[in-house]
Amino acid sequence: MIYAKITGWGKCIPPATLTNDDISQVVDTTDEWISTRTGIKARRVSHVSTAELATVASKHAIACAGLEGKDIDLVLLATCTPSTMVANTASLVQKNIGAEGAAACDTNAACSGFLYALQNATAQIQAGMIKRAVVVAAERMTWYVNWSKRDSAVLFGDGAGAVILEASDEPYGLLSTKTGCDSTDRKILHIENYGTDLSRYEPPGPSELLFEGREIFKRAVKGMSDACDDVLNHAQLSLKDIDVLIPHQANLRIIQAIQQRLDIDDNKVMVNIDKYGNTSAATIAIALCEAVEQGIIKPNDNIMSAAFGAGLTWAASYIKWGERVTPINISDATLPATNKTGLELISESVNACQ
């Protein structure tokens, strides 16, 4: 049997930080209000495009795997904030990393996007269609934020994370997964004024993300927990077999509710929402990278991951980590420098929302 082993990982974190105290200067809120309700203390604001975030993360993952761009057969980008719709953003990432001739495709399952893309790329490797893939999740969520609305303005951040999948006869990688969508309530989380359903002859107004927090909370906890149960049953594992839980970083209360429902100890749960906020599809990819960097993920660990996003999509995945937890090579890829703060980067949008 062919498996899709994770052999490389890398992330891209924009340098400009936007703290809760910063946000309190543009919307009626406080650090205490935000942190107690969400667990978020800060988030990053990108000064570059989604494609550039994805490129840097991908280059780090490729180097980590000891590969070059020309070795890649597929670039699969999970994003709901693409730089361009036509041509797809993945094609620009493919060009930037030197993966000449590789297939390139964007996939949008919102916050569940990374796990959806991981399933897709794994299936292609298992079918013998490709040998190596970059699965990258990159988001520029702050581009959609209406800074006059407290409930949504405090939640989102920008960033990217990537992994390399390689065909292997060793039983590592994504070994079980469950994805789905509850489309009956898709309007409780959506971005308005965007897409071809709009009139092309009338100005649509600014795009912004709208959601119903309480309803999302209930559906997120149930959807992710049920999906985890399905995956565990399929993989014939018990909760005691799970070494690390990497949940979507949307809200600390949601993470804690899932942790409690699955009865997993604190030291097994990866949490970084306090630093980055909700980066949608990128949250799990970034958290996975940091879990390896921080020694939370160890050789041969059993990893459970779960996500819930607009659509309403949901996913859970069981990943068997390999023996290596250190990079083969290290890339010097980095974002261009900026001397702007997070507040300065959002100032134009803030003014437009007033």
Descriptive overview:
The structure is a single chain. The protein has 354 residues and is an alpha/beta fold. It has two domains: 3-170, Thiolase/Chalcone synthase (Peroxisomal Thiolase, Chain A, domain 1, 3-Layer(aba) Sandwich); 175-320, Thiolase/Chalcone synthase (Peroxisomal Thiolase, Chain A, domain 1), CATH 3.40.47.10. 33% of the residues lie in helices and 24% in strands. The protein contains eleven helices and 13 strands. It has a five-stranded mixed sheet with strand order 1-7-6-4-5, sandwiched between helices. It has a four-stranded mixed sheet with strand order 8-13-12-11, sandwiched between helices. Helix 4 links the parallel strand 4 (74-78) and strand 5. The longest helix is centred in the middle third of the chain and has 23 residues, at 213-235. The mean pLDDT is 91.
Task: Give the key terms.
354 residues, alpha/beta, Peroxisomal Thiolase, Chain A, domain 1, 2 domains, 4-stranded mixed β-sheet, 11 helices, 13 strands, 33% helix, globular, Beta-ketoacyl-[acyl-carrier-protein] synthase III, Thiolase-like, fatty acid metabolism, fatty acid biosynthesis
Brief sketch in words of this structure:
The protein is an alpha/beta fold. It has eleven helices and 13 strands. The chain starts with a strand and ends with a helix.
